[in-house]
User: Which sequence fits this backbone?
């Protein structure tokens, strides 16, 4: 019984390692070291079906349903920080901006959010590199003056690609978007985790009741001692979660003040 209340398994799931990293970072910014987060690609979940909660974006929901029940899946809405849109707004009107991502729906979502934010005078050119052969990607990007997309994807999949990198202009301007969890998603994660904690605590209480009713007398003190410690851990986590209003404000301040995207050459 000892320690099982806090043995919560939360898995950050992405179609790629980069997207999984983004989701993992968002969860870690909420829970810091209170609850460990593990990261997996969607196809890896087939051997990791023991999780309490699987956090992913909307594109992976259907795939995850092949492995885990819907009640264990939580969708995380992540979007670029305001700094990204401010950088995009500095590009001269009419410029070609190549929007890079692994799949076209992600690109269309980013373009739509740019236009919603008033960045609507640019010529957006989609580059869904996972849906193209490598030569097409190189031909598209070789003339690009402005390349925009998720910062991790730009670094991991474009700048670090030995085939693509030689084709890029030396004066290319990179506009990497750091994405963070929306406040509504932060609330949803905290509420779901609190629900999981309550369920685990209820199970612990029922097990304790059985031990106290059926166990020998010399076990009682040790059971009491262990459970008192677990209740202390439980209280600390719930207090941390219930102070989420100020915590979310601080998360936003910290994430919005991140350093500008600097590509790794």
Assistant:
């Amino acid at each position: 019984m000892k320690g099982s209340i806090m043995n919560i398994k939360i898995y950050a799931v992405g179609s790629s390692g980069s997207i999984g990293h983004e989701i993992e970072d968002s969860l870690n910014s909420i829970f810091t070291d209170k609850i460990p987060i593990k990261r997996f690609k969607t196809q890896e979940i087939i051997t990791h079906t023991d999780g309490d909660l699987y956090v992913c974006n909307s594109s992976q929901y259907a795939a995850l349903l092949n492995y885990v029940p819907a009640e264990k899946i939580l969708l995380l809405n992540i979007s670029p920080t305001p700094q990204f849109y401010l950088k995009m707004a500095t590009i001269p009107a009419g410029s070609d901006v190549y929007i890079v991502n692994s799949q076209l729906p992600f690109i269309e979502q980013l373009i739509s959010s740019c236009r919603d934010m008033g960045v609507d005078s640019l010529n957006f050119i989609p580059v869904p590199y996972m849906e193209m052969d490598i030569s097409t990607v190189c031909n598209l990007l070789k003339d690009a003056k402005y390349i925009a997309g998720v910062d991790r994807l730009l670094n991991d999949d474009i700048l670090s690609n030995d085939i693509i990198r030689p084709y890029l202009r030396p004066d290319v301007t990179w506009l990497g978007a750091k994405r963070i969890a929306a406040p509504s998603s932060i609330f949803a994660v905290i509420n779901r985790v609190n629900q999981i904690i309550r369920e685990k605590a209820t199970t612990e209480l029922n097990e304790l009741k059985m031990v106290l009713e059926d166990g020998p007398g010399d076990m009682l003190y040790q059971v009491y001692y262990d459970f008192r410690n677990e209740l202390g851990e439980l209280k600390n986590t719930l207090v941390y979660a219930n102070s989420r209003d100020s915590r979310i404000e601080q998360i936003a301040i910290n994430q919005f003040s991140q350093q500008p995207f600097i590509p790794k050459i």
Summary: The chain has nine helices and ten strands. Residues 212 and 220 are 7 Å apart (CA to CA). The radius of gyration is 23 Å.
